[in-house]
Amino acid sequence: MLSRLLLDPFALPFMRRALIEVLLLGALAGGVGVFVVLRRLAFLADALTHAVFPGVVIGYLVSGQSGIVPGALVFAVLAAVLFTVAAARARVGQDAALAILLTSFFGLGVVLVSRQRSYTADLTTFLFGRVLTVDSAQITQTAVVAVAVGLVLYALRKELLLRTFDQQTAQAMGYRVVLLDLVLNLMIALVVVAAVKAVGTILSIALLVVPAAAARLLSDRLLVVTGLAVLFGMLGGWLGLAASYEASINHGVRLASGATVVLALVVFYLLALGVGPLVRRRWRRGARLPEDVADVDELPAGRLAPGARTGGGVR
After folding, report:
1. Residue 41 pLDDT > 60, yes or no?
2. Cα gap 246→243, rounded to integer Å
3. First CA to last CA across the chain, in angstroms?
4. Strand locations in the chain (E)
5. So what family is this one in (predicted)?
6. What is the pLDDT of residues 70-104, one digit of tens each?
7. Which of 182, 271, 197 is nearest to 25 (CA)?
8. Helix (H, G, I), strand (E, B) or coil at 219
9. Distances in whole angstroms, Cα of residue 288 to Cα of each of 205, 291, 306
10. Contact call for residues 92 and 104 (beta carbons, < 8 A)
């Protein structure tokens, strides 16, 4: 019974491609999402999902489906750079900069898409994606983005961790904090671009925030939080696709695959919310943290994450 529910749907080629795509997206968004949650950048992720919308529309109008990712990439990079520059200026707060970017870019996208005859259908596709229609080229694009982002996260893990917990110390040590912020913002933008065709510009924020938030409820250890976020992202994608297939094919209840994936992630969050205090208490009774593992609740102000002083970085 369990095998039929979890494995049989993916014997079909289009379901197998969708599964590979959501597994890649789950791992990619889970890793980056940890920094989104720790830095409290969920609103930034939300703004970027809206900011890529005009790029998606322009790319679609110019080159059809093949132009969606390049168009989204251009506007994602533009939005990340503009936000980083605006937020670095003391006279403009981050919330104001985000609000300006979100409304202006998304408004431009709506104006562009409203000029088309199939306005409603196209808008729905752009906003919510079609994960069951992904092809091998899109999977390759997502895999390339995942590898590139993973390498950057690994190379700058100590610097990004230091910036997350102690900005003043990072500046005093000579790190270019604005450049580190730009790198993180660009990685968030790349996740949104990678997810735009599969789950759309709106639902991609769930991939970034929900798995990491659920993992954060279960542990204070950074490595554990990261591993759980990646696991939740991948498992939510798998279960969401399986549930939507089972409901639609065997029970006659049509469920949007991308939205069902998001709901599966939310279920993980609710479960973590319920058992989180017990799990964290058990973790804290365990052995002392290893030297290379940061406890995200017990880093005092003015102190560095363990190991943050070593390694090359952005200076």
Report:
1. yes
2. 5
3. 56
4. none
5. Belongs to the ABC-3 integral membrane protein family.
6. 888 899 899 888 888 877 775 667 777 788 888 88
7. 197
8. coil
9. 34, 9, 13
10. no
Indicate the pTM of the whole model.
Answer: 0.82
- Pick from 164, 187, 156: which is nearest to 315 by CA? 156
Q: What pLDDT score was predicted for residue 90? A: 58
Token pair of 190, please?
């790349």
Strand partners, 221: 295
Is 185 in contact with 32 (CB distance < 8 Å)? no
Class of domain 2-285: mainly alpha
Residue 90 exposure: Cα atoms within 13 Å on the Cβ side = 0
For 254, residues 6+ apart whose C-beta sits below 8 A from its C-beta are 247, 248
Query: Tokens 């981050």 belong to which residue?
Result: 94
How far apart are alpha carbons 112 and 162 in whole angstroms?
41
Contact 42, 275 (CB under 8 A): no
CA 56-61-67 angle, to 5 degrees, is 55
